[in-house]
Amino acid sequence: MFKNSKVRVRFAPSPTGFLHIGSLRTVLLDYLFSKKEKGDFILRIEDTDQERFTEGAIESLLKTLKTFKIKFDEGPFYQSKRLDIYNKHAEQLLKEEKAYYCFCTKERLEKMREEQIANKQAPMYDQHCRNLDKKTIEENLKNKAPYTIRMKVPAGETIKFHDLLHGEIEFKTDLIDDQILIKSDGFPTYHFAVVIDDHLMKISHAMRGEEWISSTPKHLLLYKYLNWKPPIFIHLSLMLNKNGGKLSKRKGDVAVESFLENGYLPEALINFIGLTILSVKDKEKEILSLNDLIKMFNWNKVHKNPAILDIDKLDWINSQYIKQIPIKELTKLCLPYLPKDSDLNEKTIEKIIKLEQPRMNKLSDIGESSDFFFKELDYNKDLLTWPPALRGQRPGEKDAPKEKTLESLNKTYSILCDVKDGSFGAEKLKQILMPEAEKFINSEGKIDRGQLLWPMRVALSGKEKSPGPFEIAEILGKTETLKRIQKAINRLK
RNA sequence: GGCGCUAUCGUCUAAUGGUCAGGACAGCAGAUUUUCAAUCUGUCAAUCCGGGUUCGAUUCCCGGUAGCGCUACCA
User: Fold this and answer.
1) Burial grade of A12 (CB within 10 A; 0-12, 13-18, 19 or more)
2) The CATH number of the domain where A129 resides is what?
3) CA A210/CA A230 separation, integer angstroms
4) A63 assigned to active site
């Protein structure tokens, strides 16, 4: 299908601050397809909007793409450095009367639009300058009146094109505006620059978001005016939130950088985004590397439905990756989310990470879930009570659990005192404490280990939910473990 | 408003005229368990609506509806 010419695709972001999660999806599609077809992947920076340009955006963009191991064969090319090229082609169109100078002021344009909307008309340029006589044009130019260059859109025609994903799409030219090609600041608009650059850079497949479908006829018209062969168009669906609504505009919700900062792994992000592009059959695995995705790439697997940013699914994928990371490496990755002033040694931190590994959805989870290893405990003494149903009862009330809890903690304390420092490990503690725990019988006559183990676990973690008491005790060490149990006893007294 | 794109369990998706409409995430239940995870097992749950075409429509066609997009000297 693509044998005739080499596959060349480009990713063409505009540097407005950060990499949008939707853009990551476009890059990935570009990348997967170009690698699958052994084609070229080009990076082009579309920095033609001087007002929206953000300092440092390009550097940050390049850095982010690097973390995903997405490499470019050519570029980055900057449109802002190619102004003369666009102007040259604009002049050609002017000469051939396929474009014209427009001297309308922004104020006039705005007023016209408002009136059109008020009259329930479709807002469109009224072609006021389309047929200015030569003399007026020359005078205006001589007087240095600000101008734009607009393309002439023919009336009464239908423009058809074939989209690889969506099939035949057609638009009537009567609904298409005389698009501005060159703005009054001398910069081209997206519409003009994209056509020129895609042609000059020999782009074979133009992939972009669905929001561009409606402007494709303008681009096609330009290809025709310039006598160039258009590329194959592919319009990728947009990304929506889980309710099918628009994605939030807040950077924290959509910036790829924010996902990374929150502890989503690049591989997991790629996997998730890949799954929003390609579909997987019945019992095929959903955990896929970049290379897996390249291998399985096929246009008939590419979705045309909107992509949904399903955080639950992302979390699950991310947790799958976290479980596969060797502890040493995972520890390194978690370090930014742990207290920096901790005096715990490396080995201890590794043990904590190992304990939390199956509980983590994202790296940042480690901060809250392991905080009790790093700081003084703060919890309601009521939490020490087992079973939970008895909590909240005051001393003197029937079945007040305080004494039972105290008894448990005292017992644990005295047993642990006798454990030698050197053998204070989770396995050993389990061996010693389990038989004791199993001596407890609840009101139904069943073994009730919680009677001993729950108060101990809470005394050590201060949390309702945490890893088991033996593992925690090992990490805390004998001294700290006994200290925490003593504190719990004091709390109850 | 006009134009366009899209439409299968709560969410993503498979099935391209014939399936008990399959899988994954989430949910729920069970096993395990001192709690929470992890793990294993089971379970709930869908073809937007209305017309055609056809022996037969999730699938093809038309209309409606809904969601999204475009309608800028932004991309």
Assistant:
1) buried
2) 3.90.800.10
3) 18
4) no
Q: Which nucleotides of B are covered by protein (CB under 7 A)?
A: 1-8, 10-14, 16, 22-26, 33-39, 67-75
Judge if A162 and A75 occupy the same domain.
Answer: no
Q: Which nucleotide is nearest to A315 (CA to C1')?
A: B25
Residue A5 is predicted with a pLDDT of 80
Nucleotide nearest to A304 (CA to C1'): B6
How far apart CA A179 and CA A148 sit, in angstroms, is: 10
| Tens-digit pLDDT profile for residues A52-108 | 888 899 999 999 999 999 999 998 999 999 999 999 999 999 999 999 999 999 999
* Cβ contact A238:A254 at 8 Å: no
pTM: 0.93
Residue A310 maps to which CATH number?
3.40.50.620
How far does the CA of A11 sit from the C1' of B75, in Å?
Answer: 13
Among A366, A317, A327, CA closest to A350: A327
Give me A97's structure tokens.
């009367």
The predicted pLDDT at position A1 comes to 45
CA to C1' distance (Å), from A466 to B27: 23
Out of A144, A249, A446, A465, which one is annotated catalytic?
A249
Distance from C-alpha of A110 to C-alpha of A75, rounded to nearest angstrom: 38
Which single residue has its CA nearest the C1' atom of nucleotide B26?
A312
Q: Between the CA of A320 and the C1' of B14, what is the distance in angstroms?
A: 23
Spanning CA of A347 to C1' of B41, the rounded length in angstroms is: 37
What are the structure tokens assigned to A251, written together?
């950077």
**Domain count of the fold of chain A:** 3
**Is residue A72 one of the residues assigned to a domain?**
yes
> Over the stretch A355-383, which tens digit does the pLDDT of each residue have?
999 999 999 999 999 999 999 888 888 89
